[in-house]
Amino acid sequence: MGNNAAGIENRYSPGKKLESLKLREQSVLEKPDISIFASAHRPQNWMDLYRSIGHNNVSFEIVFVGPNVPDFELPDNFKFIKSCTKPTQCIEIAVRNTSADLIMNIADDTEFRTEKPLDILYQTYKSFNNDKILLSCRYMCNGQDVSSKSHRFYFGDDSAPIMPLSALMSKKLYFDIGGIDRNFIAVMWDCDIAMRVYAIGGEVILSNVYLDELESKRHGSYLCLEFWSHDRKLLERLWSINKKTHLNRTKPVEPFSDFRILEESQGPRGKWHGTSPVLVEKFVDFPINNIKLLMRITHRIIFFFRIAYHALRNPSKYPMYAKRILRACFG
Q1: Which of 53, 61, 209, 212 lies in disulfide reach of 32, CB 3.0 to 4.6 Å?
Q2: Could you give the residue ranges of the DSSP H alpha helices within the chain?
């Protein structure tokens, strides 16, 4: 777990305490069976999602990370960590603060439509006796089952690999394959995780648990639309050629660093800037481009100094040197 994401206040309780939905009590030291994690910024949705989990025999915790502090008390098994970093980084912070051996991501504009979903997921996962699987929920949108076409790397292409939605997986597997790549800003990171699992001989399996994404819960936020261009293009560059997927990732995974992980967005930031000057962030975000730019600027500076040096030695050639400088500046 990252040092900077540990030891911080993670529960807010200004209002009336809400009853936990767990059936069995847990001691402080007892690990839950499942940790549910998310980048979350809509506290008004959280308790509806929590209640949709219902009563399960397996124990669970929820770890949400985001910018907006809830104005109500969270249940005992519900932790919140404040961070204004980009969504994928908030998700990584959340994972690093989970305590169960099995983890699953979720979004705070969704609700379960299956009774005892965690019991079903847990029992199904254990029945495979295989740590290299992602056990996915099935996708619903506004009450409609759209899982038949939505769970493919390429929508509707049955030959493409199955992609997960809020998959239950081993936390050890998650860290073994490197966690989230910092180059993703908001979405598609879970598809990248899935492809890395496929690449080591694992698989994605669809469960019978339905998770419903609700338009009424979005509250004006459309991350997939906003960051599709960046994150989807990155995913396809990593795992496909001419609309055909492969299992040889074209670039190594770039994991998040522990250093100031709560305070500063790492990699491409999108609209989630930290406290550093914007110019510094731009330089960090695009190091290769800026190295090339810096080399061009350095070359121009050396060129100007050489002209100035020769001009000072030979005043009669001032007009010629002036023309050369103008051509260098304006082409």
Answers
A1: 61
A2: 43-53, 87-96, 117-128, 147-150, 171-176, 189-199, 223-239, 278-285, 287-313, 318-330
